[in-house]
UniProtKB/TrEMBL annotation:
The keyword ATP-binding does not apply. This is GTP cyclohydrolase-2. The lineage of its organism: Bacteria, Pseudomonadati, Pseudomonadota, Betaproteobacteria, Burkholderiales. CDD domains: GTP_cyclohydro2. Catalyzes the conversion of GTP to 2,5-diamino-6-ribosylamino-4(3H)-pyrimidinone 5'-phosphate (DARP), formate and pyrophosphate. HAMAP family: RibA. It is an enzyme of class 3 (hydrolase). Its EC number is 3.5.4.25. The gene is ribA. It comes from Pseudoduganella namucuonensis. Belongs to the GTP cyclohydrolase II family. GO terms for molecular function: 3,4-dihydroxy-2-butanone-4-phosphate synthase activity; GTP binding; GTP cyclohydrolase II activity; zinc ion binding. Binds 1 zinc ion per subunit. Pathway: Cofactor biosynthesis; riboflavin biosynthesis; 5-amino-6-(D-ribitylamino)uracil from GTP: step 1/4.
């Protein structure tokens, strides 16, 4: 386990503690931060020596309880989280930040309301707007101080989202490389993934083939 000083890194959040976290793919170290404004617990799963100055394989994952925990097939979140952990494990080095901004920042209950609207014919963007939210309410400001805790300034970022890359660069976090993360296209999330590509700019064309077990 890497020694990490248990000291606050910036005003917006405190670094709190860490523990070993064995997963099916590797034994990560789980680090916890607490955001002052909300009390939310944001997490970093770290493997290997990421503070050596070289770009770090990384995922900046937004919480999706339904996809990450409850196996929902409405989105690709759970498969992306697993895919990212597998890739980090395969390289033996990297970090997965788990940010508690559920439902692109609108929360679980509102995401469920958005799903109901989607069942009535709205797409994922229209449903958010119908509820009075922007298509994407996320804020990545905590990423920079979280990475700073580990002396990480440059990422090989696993994402299909160009706005996430732009957000990192606006924070002063260098994205040395984009690593595509195309997983779990199924009959339930086809429309959702197509809308992400068409309206949110996700880099997912041409459509990836259905992922095989173990394929990332
Ligand atoms: N409001 C809303 N949020 C959703 C919906 N489906 C998934 N989410 C949330 O969207 C977030 C994941 O965002 P995505 O746009 O799928 O992916 P991304 O992280 O921006 O992009 P990638 O890095 O390529 O995965 C999580 O917080 C999910 O809870 C939906 O239909 N409505
Ligand atoms: Zn999801």
């Amino acid at each position: 386990m890497q020694p990490v000083a248990e000291t606050p890194v910036k005003e917006e959040l405190d670094y709190v503690t860490s523990c070993a976290l064995p997963t099916p793919w590797a034994q990560f170290t789980l680090h916890a931060f607490v955001e002052h404004a909300t009390g939310k617990e944001h997490l970093a799963m770290v493997l290997g020596d990421i503070g050596d100055g070289q770009p770090v394989l990384a995922r900046v994952h937004s919480e999706c309880l339904t996809g990450d925990v409850l196996y929902s097939q409405r989105c690709d979140c759970g498969a992306q989280l697993e895919g990212a952990l597998r890739k980090v494990a395969a390289e033996g080095r990297g970090v997965v930040l788990y940010l508690r901004q559920e439902g692109r920042g609108i929360g679980l209950i509102n995401k469920m309301r958005a799903y109901r609207l989607q069942e009535a014919g709205y797409d994922t963007v229209q449903a958010n707007e119908q509820l009075g939210f922007k298509a994407d309410q996320r804020d990545y400001a905590l990423v920079e101080p979280m990475l700073k805790q580990f002396n990480v300034t440059s990422l090989r970022l696993m994402t299909n989202n160009p706005r996430k890359i732009a957000a990192m660069e606006a924070l002063g976090v260098k994205v040395a490389e984009r690593v595509p993360l195309l997983v779990n296209r199924n009959k339930f999330n086809q429309h959702y993934l197509n809308t992400k590509a068409a309206k949110l700019g996700h880099m997912m064309t041409p459509p990836p083939p259905a992922a095989e077990d173990g394929e990332l």
